[in-house]
Design brief:
The structure holds two protein chains of two kinds.
Chain A: E1 5-14, H1 18-29, E2 34-38, E3 54-55, H2 66-76, H3 83-103, E4 117-125, E5 130-136, H4 142-156, E6 160-163, E7 165-172, E8 178-185, E9 190-201, H5 222-229, E10 234-235, E11 240-247, H6 257-260, E12 264-266, H7 274-277, H8 287-299, E13 311-314, H9 319-326, H10 328-338, E14 347-356, E15 360-361, E16 367-372, E17 375-385, E18 390-391, H11 403-425, H12 439-450, E19 455-456, H13 457-471, E20 475-476, H14 478-495, E21 498-499, H15 509-533, E22 542-543, H16 551-554, E23 556-561, E24 566-571
Chain B: E1 2-9, E2 19-26, H1 34-44, E3 63-66, E4 69-72, E5 85-88, E6 95-97, E7 100-101, H2 104-112, H3 132-136, H4 155-159, H5 166-177, H6 185-192, H7 206-210, H8 217-232
Parallel strand pairs in B: 1-5
Antiparallel strand pairs in B: 1-2, 3-4, 3-5, 6-7
Classes of the chains: A alpha/beta, B alpha+beta.
Bound molecules: flavin-adenine dinucleotide (FAD), iron/sulfur cluster (2 copies) and FE2/S2 (inorganic) cluster (FES).
One iron/sulfur cluster binds at residues 144-150, 167-168, 171, 211, 213, 215, 217 of chain B.
C-alpha cells in the first residue's frame, strides 16, 4: 500500500495528560529521543479538570501513615485492587507529591508553610477509625495546577511534543512485540509511522461511552481501542465509577472536596440521609457507596426538585470566606451550569459517570502484561501504559478520590523508568518494523473515505451512549445487562459502516470523530460484556440479582479479548511488596 | 428554539478565500451554551471545524470571537446573544480552517518567558516552605488556561506577535517572579527588558475585559514594570 512517511524515536508516548507528561519528563531528562503525541495541546488534556486533590500521607495537618492510605485504598477497591501495586503507590505518594511541589506546583499551604490537605471520601486514620486530611490541594484546581506544572517542567526539559497528532493503531511485529504506532497529523491529514524502541499509552479514560459523564469530549478511550484491535486484552472494564456529585442535567463535576470542606447531601425532605447509611464517614463514605445511597433516595421518592430526580449539595453554611478561598471554581461552575450561587443555595446533583477503573493490564512498573499459555501475566515487549487508560490495578472495583492524580505521577514515573531500562538493556537498537506497518490504519481511513449508504457518526455514537447509560448504570441486573450485550453488538455492527461528508484533509474533525468512535465502541462492548458476566456485587458493580460480594468465585480480574469477544480471568495480587496481606472484610462505613 | 448564526468559514482544501456563512439551528432545551449550539450545527454540517474538549471552561480549547468579543464558547450562554450570532476565529492569528487558528506564535511567547520555577539550591527532603500569605501572591496568576482570548484581543500583540510577549505570557512571567520559591527574578527582568517584549503594552486593558477566568494581565504587567523601574533606581 501507499508509501507512508516514517520517523524514528527512542520512545513514543501517546498522551500528554498527567501520566504521559510525568513519563515524558523521565525520558527527556534521561536524554532519550522522545516524542509525545497528543490530540490536544498538552494543558488541554482532561487532567486539567481535576479539582479536589492528590493523596499522600504527608501528615501536614493530622497524623497519617502510608499504611493507613494503603488500607483505605484496598478497602475502597473492594478487594479487587492488586496489593503490590497499591503498596507501591501509597508508599511512594509522599515523595511523588513533594516532587511536584519542587517542580513548582502551586499547592495551597498551611501556616507551617507545608502543603494544605483536606478530608476526602474514604480517607481514614488508623484503619478506618475516623476521617483524616490526606488530599493535597491547590484550591479546587489541583488538576490544572498539576498539569500546567508538568507541562512547564517539560518545557524546561525540552520535550518534543507532537501537538494535535492522533495515534491510530499500535504496531506489533510477528513476535507480538510493540515497535511503534501509526498516527494522524490533524493539521495536514497525513498518516505517519512512528518507529520506537518503546511505546507508552497514557491516553486517559473512555468516559464518553456514557451519555452523561464528567469527562471531556476527547475522552474516547483511544488507547483501549488501539489495544483491543491489536489483540491486547482489556482488564476489569465492568467497573465504572459514578461520582456522586455531577451537576444535574449538565454532567459537570462538583468535587468531593466540597464535602471534604464540610458540605453535606440533603434529600428532597431536607434530610441529611448519609447519616443513616454511613454513621461514621457520613457524606465522606467512598463514591460507589454514596452514589448508590443517592440513587436509592431518588428511587424511593425522596428526591429533590420538581421531578424529584436529584439530591442537593448544601454548602452555604461554610460561609463565603471558605467557599471563595477553597472552592472558587465550584462556585463558578454552580453559577454557570446549575444557575445557583452556592453561597446562598444548594447545588442540584446526581451520580454521574466519572472514571474508568479498568483498562490496559499492567503491573506496578507500567509494563503491559497479558496471558500466554498458563501464565496469566507475560510482558508485552516494548509496551507500557499508565494513568486512567491503564489498570495496574490500584483502584480495583472502586477508586478513592484523589488516588487518580497520584496514580498518574507514580506510575507515569515508574513506567518512564521501566522504558529507560528496557531501551538501555534490552532494545538498544530498533526492532525492525513489519512490512506495511501502516496498512491497517490506512485501510480504516480508506473505508471511511469510500463508505456509501452508511450511518452518521453522531447517530451511532448516541445509540452507544444511550445503551451504556441504560444498561450499565449505577444499579444493574441480569435481564437489563443481557439486553445491553445484544444492543451494543448491534451498535458495533453499525459502527463499521459510519460515513462522513467531509472528505478534506486539513483538520478534518469529522474524520477524527469517526476514528474516535471506533475506539469508544471497543470500550463499550468490553464494558457491557464484562459487566453482564460478573455475577456478584463489588465496588461500583452493583448487581440486583447478586447483591453480595462473592470472594470465592469472583475475587478475580476480568480480561476482555476483542477478536472473539471472550472473557478470561486472572487472580488478584494478594501479596504486597513488604507488608502483610490485608484480607477481605465486609465494607461498612 | 431556532437560532441564527453567521459563521466564518474557510477550508483551504476547497475555498479560495474565507467567507461568512449564514445558518440556522434548532436548539433543544438542554442546549444552554454556545458550544452546545455549535455541536448541534456540526451534526447537520460535519465540515464545520472548531476545537473543544472539557466543555466547562478549564481547558482553553474553544476560544473564539463571539459577536465581536473573544470568549469561550462552552461558558457563553446562548440566551442573551444578539442574533445572528457572529462567530469568527480569534483575531490576529493565522487561520488554519474555520474557527481553528494556528497558535504557534502564542505558545512560543509563553515558552520564551521560561515558564517554570527556577531555583538552583538543592531542594529539601520536604516541601520548599511557603507561607499561606506568600502563596496568595500567586492567586489571579496561576489559573490561566492559555486560551489566548487576551493576547488575540490586544492590538500590540496583533502588530508584533513575534516581538511582544503579550498579556498571557507576561501574566505567566509575573506568576514566576511572584513565587517565593523562584530565585531568577533578575534574569526574568533581563529577559523582558527591550522595547518590545514588555514595553509594547500600552495598558489598553482589552485583555482584562475578555479573560474568561477573570484574570488581570494588565495589573501583572504593571507590577513587572514597577520592578523594572525599581531596579534601575
Ligand atoms: C472533572 C474531573 C475531576 C477530577 N478530579 C480528580 C481529583 O480531584 N483527584 C484525582 O485524583 N482524580 C480526579 N479525577 C480523575 C483524574 O483527573 C483523571 O483520571 C486523570 O487526570 C487522567 O489522566 P491521564 O493522564 O490518564 O489522561 P488525560 O489527562 O485524560 O490525558 C489523556 C491524553 O491522551 C491524549 N490522547 C488520547 N487519545 C489519543 C490519541 N489517539 N492520540 C494522541 N493522543 C491521545 C490526550 O490528548 C491527552 O493528552 C477527575 C476527573 C474528572 C473528569
Ligand atoms: S493592557 Fe497591554 S497587554 Fe492588555 S490588551 Fe492592552 S496592550 Fe495588550
Ligand atoms: S490570561 Fe485569561 S484570557 Fe489570557 S490566556 Fe490566560 S485565561 Fe486566557
Ligand atoms: S471546551 Fe474547554 S474551555 Fe471550552
Amino acid at each position: 500500500m501507499a508509501n507512508v512517511a516514517k520517523r524514528q524515536f527512542d520512545a513514543v508516548i501517546v498522551g500528554a495528560g498527567g501520566a504521559g507528561m510525568r513519563a515524558a519528563l523521565q525520558l527527556s531528562e534521561a536524554g532519550l529521543k522522545t516524542a509525545v503525541l497528543s490530540k490536544v495541546f498538552p494543558t488541554r488534556s482532561h487532567t486539567v479538570a481535576a479539582q479536589g486533590g492528590i493523596s499522600a500521607s504527608l501528615g501536614n495537618v493530622q497524623e497519617d501513615k502510608w499504611e493507613w492510605h494503603m488500607y483505605d485504598t484496598v478497602k475502597g477497591s473492594d478487594w479487587l485492587g492488586d496489593q503490590d501495586a497499591i503498596e507501591f503507590m501509597c508508599k511512594t505518594a509522599p515523595e511523588a507529591v513533594i516532587e511536584l511541589e519542587h517542580f513548582g506546583m502551586p499547592f495551597d499551604r498551611v501556616e507551617s508553610g507545608r502543603i494544605y490537605q483536606r478530608p476526602f471520601g474514604g480517607h481514614t486514620a488508623n484503619f478506618g477509625e475516623k476521617p483524616v486530611q490526606r488530599a493535597c490541594a491547590a484550591a479546587d484546581r489541583t488538576g490544572h495546577a498539576l498539569l500546567h506544572t508538568l507541562y512547564q517542567r517539560n518545557v524546561r526539559a525540552n520535550t518534543q511534543f507532537f501537538v494535535e497528532w492522533m495515534a491510530l493503531d499500535l504496531i506489533r511485529d510477528a513476535d507480538g512485540d510493540v515497535v511503534g504506532v501509526t498516527a494522524l497529523e490533524m493539521e495536514t491529514g497525513e498518516v505517519y509511522v512512528l518507529h520506537a524502541k518503546a511505546v507508552l499509552f497514557a491516553t486517559g479514560g473512555a468516559g464518553r461511552i456514557y451519555a452523561a459523564s464528567t469527562n471531556a469530549f476527547i475522552n474516547t478511550g483511544d488507547g483501549l481501542g488501539m489495544c483491543a484491535r491489536a489483540g491486547i486484552p482489556l482488564e476489569d472494564m465492568e467497573f465504572w465509577q459514578f461520582h456522586p456529585t455531577g451537576v444535574a442535567g449538565a454532567g459537570v463535576l462538583i468535587t468531593e472536596g466540597v464535602r471534604g470542606e464540610g458540605g453535606i447531601l440533603l434529600n428532597g425532605n431536607g434530610e441529611r440521609f448519609m447519616e443513616r447509611y454511613a454513621p461514621t464517614l457520613k457524606d465522606l463514605a467512598p463514591r460507589d457507596f454514596v452514589s448508590r445511597c443517592m440513587a436509592l433516595e431518588v428511587l424511593e421518592g425522596r428526591g429533590a426538585g420538581k421531578n424529584k430526580d436529584h439530591v442537593l449539595l448544601k454548602l452555604d453554611h461554610l460561609g463565603p470566606e471558605v467557599i471563595n478561598h477553597r472552592l472558587p471554581s465550584i462556585r463558578e461552575i454552580a453559577i454557570k451550569f446549575a444557575g445557583v450561587d452556592p453561597i446562598k443555595e444548594p447545588i442540584p446533583v446526581i451520580p454521574t459517570t466519572h472514571y474508568q477503573m479498568g483498562g490496559i493490564p499492567t503491573n506496578y512498573l507500567g509494563e503491559v502484561m497479558v496471558p500466554k499459555g498458563d501464565n496469566p501475566e507475560v510482558r508485552v515487549n516494548g509496551f507500557y501504559a499508565a494513568g486512567e487508560c491503564a489498570c495496574a490495578s490500584v483502584h480495583g472495583a472502586n477508586r478513592l478520590g484523589t488516588n487518580s492524580l497520584l496514580d498518574l505521577v507514580v506510575f507515569g514515573k515508574s513506567a518512564g523508568d521501566s522504558m529507560i531500562d528496557f531501551i538501555k538493556r534490552e532494545r538498544p537498537v530498533h526492532k525492525p518494523l513489519p512490512e506495511n506497518a501502516a496498512d491497517y490504519s490506512l485501510s480504516r481511513i480508506a473505508r471511511l473515505e469510500n463508505q456509501t449508504g452508511g450511518e452518521e457518526v453522531n447517530d451511532v455514537r448516541s445509540a452507544m451512549q444511550k445503551t451504556i447509560q441504560l444498561r450499565a448504570g449505577v444499579f444493574r441486573n441480569s435481564e437489563n445487562m443481557a439486553l445491553g450485550v445484544k444492543e451494543i453488538a448491534e451498535v458495533a455492527e453499525r459502527a463499521k459502516r459510519t460515513q462522513i461528508k467531509d472528505k478534506s484533509k486539513v483538520w478534518n474533525t469529522a474524520r477524527i470523530e469517526a476514528l474516535e468512535l471506533d475506539n469508544l465502541i471497543e470500550a463499550a462492548v468490553a464494558t457491557m460484556i464484562a459487566a453482564d458476566a460478573r455475577k456478584e456485587s463489588r465496588g461500583a458493580h452493583s448487581h440486583d440479582d447478586f447483591q453480595k460480594r462473592d470472594d470465592d468465585n469472583w475475587m478475580k480480574h476480568s480480561l476482555f479479548f476483542n477478536h472473539d469477544r471472550h472473557l478470561d480471568y486472572k487472580p488478584v495480587h494478594t501479596k504486597p511488596l513488604t507488608v502483610d496481606y490485608i484480607p477481605p472484610k465486609e465494607r461498612t462505613f | 428554539m431556532k437560532m441564527q448564526f453567521k459563521i466564518y468559514r474557510y477550508n483551504p482544501d476547497v475555498d479560495a478565500k474565507p467567507y461568512m456563512q449564514d445558518c440556522e439551528v434548532e436548539l433543544e432545551p438542554t442546549d444552554k451554551k454556545l458550544l452546545d449550539a455549535l455541536v448541534r450545527l456540526k451534526v447537520v454540517d460535519d465540515t464545520l471545524s472548531f476545537r473543544r474538549s472539557c466543555r466547562e471552561g478549564v481547558c482553553g480549547s474553544d476560544a473564539m470571537n463571539i459577536n465581536g468579543k473573544n470568549g469561550l464558547a462552552c461558558v457563553t450562554d446562548v440566551a442573551g446573544l444578539k442574533q445572528p450570532v457572529e462567530i469568527r476565529p480569534l483575531p490576529g492569528l493565522p487561520v488554519i480552517r474555520d474557527l481553528i487558528v494556528d497558535m504557534t506564535q502564542f505558545f512560543k511567547q509563553y515558552n520564551s518567558i521560561k515558564p517554570y520555577v527556577i531555583n538552583d539550591t538543592p531542594p529539601p527532603s520536604h516541601e520548599r516552605l511557603q507561607s499561606p500569605k506568600d502563596r496568595e501572591e500567586l492567586d489571579g496568576l496561576y489559573e490561566c488556561i492559555l486560551c489566548a482570548c487576551c493576547s488575540t484581543s490586544c492590538p500590540s500583540f496583533w502588530w508584533n506577535p513575534d516581538k511582544f510577549v503579550g498579556p498571557a505570557g507576561l501574566l505567566a512571567a509575573y506568576r514566576f517572579i511572584a513565587d517565593t520559591r523562584d530565585t531568577a527574578t533578575n534574569e526574568r527582568l533581563d529577559n523582558l527588558e527591550d522595547p518590545y517584549r514588555l514595553f509594547r503594552c500600552h495598558s489598553i486593558m482589552n485583555c482584562v475585559d475578555v479573560c474568561p477566568k477573570h484574570l488581570n494581565p494588565t495589573k501583572a504587567i504593571g507590577k513587572i514594570k514597577e520592578l523594572m523601574v525599581k531596579r534601575i533606581a
